[in-house]
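Continuing from the previous page of notes. For each protein in this section, the sequence appears first, followed by its structure tokens. Read the first protein now.
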Amino acid sequence: MEHFKLDLDSDGILLITFDSPGRTMNVLSNAVVAEMGEIVEKISGDDDIKGAVITSGKSAFCAGADLSEMGSNITALTQLMKTDPEAAKKQLFDNVFSLNKTFRAMETCGKPVAAAVNGLALGGGFEIALACHGRFAASDNPKLKLGLPEALVGLLPGAGGTQRLPRLIGLMNAAPILMQGKQLKASEAQAMGILQGTAPQAELVATAKQWVKDNPKAKAPWDQDRFKFPGGAPYTAQGFQMFAGANAMIRKETYGNYPAMANILKAVYEGSLVPMDAALRIESRYFADLFLRPESRNMIRSLFVSKQAIEKGEGRPEGQEKADVKSVGVIGAGFMGAGVAYVSAMAGMDVVLIDRDQEGADKGKQFTIDEQTKRVKRNKTTQEKADAIIGRITATTDYAALKNVDLIVEAVFEDSALKAKITELGEAVIGESAVFGSNTSTIPITDLAKASKRPENFIGIHFFSPVHKMMLVEIIKGEKTSDYAISRAIDFVTRIRKVPIVVEDTRGFYANRCVMRYIGEGYNMLSEGVKPALIENAGKMAGMPVGPLALQDEVAIDLAYKVLKQTKADLGNDYKSGTMEAVIVPMVEKYDRLGRKNGKGFYVYNGKEKHLWEELDQFAVNGVLEDQPNVQEVKDRLMYAQAVEAARTFDEGIIHDPREADLGSIFGWGFAPFTGGAVSFIDTIGAKRFVKRADELRDAYGEQFEVPSLLRDMAEKGETFYGKFGRKEAA
């Protein structure tokens, strides 16, 4: 066999070692499932085999389904759906049910099977263990986690997870694992009754084998007579309470945008009312239903396939090789600079953190000290490892310390003159091959590069706040930026485990241009007299993490004020004032409402509690509308404003890859993840329908909804962004 090694010992216990060649992680591909079927037949039919233990030959047990292969299957099935929908559905169900069929055959083979889980076991990997009669995990592997994260990519556990886990630990305990993707440590899983036990790595297989020998007639609890659901079945008082609450919770959390949550709940409920064999067919039916939905297709493509590819550096210019960025200089030790220093040190790099005075530099380093102290207290790391990370950061005012760094990240205020001064000071000491990156959020890189003596090595590296939590980094090419500089920036961003997208130079680049359309449309509606609560709730109902006014509070109103002033100064007579300026200027100058940072913005903050500021109606130019628009109208305005701007960036050649556009929208400003991103949002609606609706919004509300000629042309030709601009394998 290619993916499994079999070893039968003298006691008749078959050790099955899962070890796919050429891969760092075991996954459940079609070839793996086929081999598992052969192994189950061997266990069942060979009298010399008294039982079996499944383990892994890698540091992790199994990471679940092969989502890359799954993405290819989606493309093929989508094509078949156009010509023969019934054949496509049958083919999909048969494919999905094959894994359930294999696991069920193992579960009912008449011989005890145990899992020796030596490392990470997620999704289908965890479901392998659940289908075994006994489950044991390594007690001394801190990276070991058990979980079912399928809901996070728009799917449900499709290999028995929705049926076995609730029967094992009860409906209430299973809910957060199934619907929120909660992951468990070995000790937690044992305490919940998922595992029979734990053992040190060196003794794990022997422990599992002993259990198999001691339990020759082992059966799953649900295959035994008089089985009862732990904590009560759905039709009991306890079970009914759980389902009533879960329905309300799902609606509150998802606004109906994530069908995976509802399908998981349906599969659990319906499956719990019938025997296991019927329950597994129910699960496969709901999995197949999700597989054909655009939400699942888009989420798998963007959140897994595309993300993985971009994280591996697929945006690297041709002819450039990957290199190791070992040291970085960070100039500006404020919140952003401190965050960059922290993630760089966490990634193993040496960091020189510079500020105008030692007190400021030390304060920036203190951020890392504080974060590592929290991690030690939460048992996320050891004091020794924390000290090593802190020790990688040199806090100083001396620019000479930058002499040997591979890359600079300048993170001072959004002031062109200040950034020019910093560029000169930094370039005076760094080596010729070092790359100078500016963390500007809006100022064009070509303008900033005018202060550089080496514009070919000058680049934009735009982080999002807070740096240690936000996944996206925009890499911005100036007019003279070289492929070498782009490649080194990608090396740096991938090393700190962020998602790099490469964009051309323009004011606001990609993410800020688009997100400001979201915030700006919130300002427009506020000015028109739409009630603030309707604006905010519609944003969340559309799938955004927060409403546009709350988002402005988070990024700081005074930052928008400073950007407005800088933009006005840069554009001069070409600057056009709008509703945003009419709101932001008085918010800052008249009311000192700076956002969450000072507890006063569009919201009033009291600890974790907040409510909309009662005086926002003053910004409605003609008073609050007596007849408020319907929710769908507000949702469309907020979502189309962003998507139209994303299309404009393609039209202007600012961004070139639909994968990067989608990832940038999701990880940069939280564009509704269930859509797959701003570009997938347009593709799913269809260019023709999208343009028609955008034209309606333009005629009603203004030129912000005017689609670019590129998109209008695509609508006429029936094209999609992924079809026109995407790599063939990503289409």
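Done with the first. The second protein uses the same format. Note its length before scrolling.
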Amino acid sequence: MDKLEFSSWNGKVVDNRKGKAKKASRAAAVPFPAPVRGEKAAAVMGWNGLVVLEPGADVPSLTVQYLKEIRKISCGECSVCMIGIDMLLDIFKDMADGEGFESDLAEVEKIVRDVAANAKCNFGQSALFPVSDAVKHYRADFVAVVKGDRKIDGKAYGTAVTAPCIEACPASLDIPGYIEYIKNNRFSDSLGLIRKNCILPGVIGRTCTHPCESACVRKDLDGSLSIRLLKRAAADFERKEKSAPLPVPSGAKDGKVAVIGSGPAGLAAAYNLRRKGYGVTVFETLPEAGGMAAVGIPDYRLPLDILRHEIGLIGDMGVEIALNSGIGKIDMDDFRKKGYQALFLAVGAHAGNRMGVKGEETKCDGLVDGVEFLRDLNLGKKIAPKKKVLIIGGGNVAIDCARSCVRLGFKDVEILYRRSRAEMPARLEEIEGAEEEGVKIRYLTAPLEVVSKSGKFSCLNCIRMKLGKPDESGRKRPEPVKGSEHVVEADLVISAIGQSAVIPVTASKKSLSVNKNGTVKVDPKTMMTSVEGIFSGGDCVTGPATLIEAIAAGNMAAEGIDLYLRGEAAGGGLSFDGVDLKSQRAGGYVVKEGAEAVPFLEMAKRTTGFGEVEGGFSHAGAMEEAKRCLRCYRVAVWEKGK
């Protein structure tokens, strides 16, 4: 997309129309929302300006279409932008009906300025700037409408709505929308909106890494909104009020789908496919459904009854979940004979990685894998506490293992991590929680050798590390310090340095293609593997990731499977990649107001059991926190090109 006629994006005017510029600028130099999948755009209008790509683009008609779309978003809470949009639509209607005047164009620009200065939310303060740009820079086109020389016609348009928080969310939840429902005491409506993209709201409301909060516009003003906890508030409210069943599809579609794995990716795919009317069976190897959410996260972070409740709602829709039903070999022909037209492989990443040190290959009592440790704990296996335990690693699994050991009664719990705290991948709040509970963290230390005697772990030979230049991960590379070898004694070592997927083999002649790291290779648009009819997503495709990323993969796979079974191709849309969604021209004033606090389980009760540590919002507290949302919706409308 190299052509660029005109742009006012972010207030910077680039005008390549005849006689307007000495040197034409390229469209690629302007970071505006762009069409995807090979589609073309004649012009794009969004919150931050107007971009015209093809000569002859109908700017007046695009402007009216844009106003109609943003009118749908205007909430009317302060009434400023809603009234302003309605006034503008009336002005343009009068022009189209031959009842307008050229002087109305000056009134358009005044309305835009007044709305931006007086609207109370980010949406109202930014949404109308491109209308003013259109009138200012394409005045002749609007004058032609006034004179009756051109019409405002309906054309082929595309529309996209996002926000900084929505774009940061792997599952693209309508965050301002569900927060607004909470603000207005409509918790059930909020939960319904959340479930369109996240079928495990209570789970994600407790465990999400919340990248949306890092993208929140309020972050640099007075602190991000507590978006994760507001999601939890909607889910918890439903459970307290006795949850209603999820809607069952009114009609059935031809075709059944098999889902291998009942983790978040598999559950999301099963829910979305069932909602579309397909018959779905989920096959799970373990005796408990939920994947890593069930067997990889301790109760103090995610009580099992929350997960079971949300899985139960999916089952009540008609999704069959077959536990203790591992699929060792995938035979698509056999599945087709049983009536399944497609299969979704979502086996997760349940195999712990090896440390790669001397002596590790000799299995000994006292050396365990972190994933296995948490799985045994969550499935009810008795784990006898010992005096000293070492956990190797710096991710959330390592932290979960350490905090679980504290609760099990281990007297001395220590994490060894080869980098510094700044590079530690675990969530900051989890690291701080572990330290508050007495977990020690020894940084810049790496294991060299596992020493065992008579089949029992004896000690760990370690070495001090220093940080060098950044590696491919972007973090500083740990390098051994010569002469710093030392021995660390312990009764138990838990290795928690990462996980890998164990991919089932296929019985067909064509096997699943895998990447160099052993993950399944898929088409990024459809999620189909190299074997027709088999789709895949979640940790077995991406490697270990977050639960919300797995849900996003399940959502996307369900769309791909649906299109495949209906024989259709994926549609187009707008991409916001590379677009600064926070940027906008000067608007009104925002009052600073800090976030609401939530209670935490007192320390004396934390370390003696697995009770949930983090409390949620009260009903009133959730409504107060929701009031802080600035509704930073970003709307873009594009006239489809030729």
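What the second structure shows: Residues 170-245+619-626 form one domain. The two ends are 13 Å apart (CA to CA). We return to this in next week's lecture.
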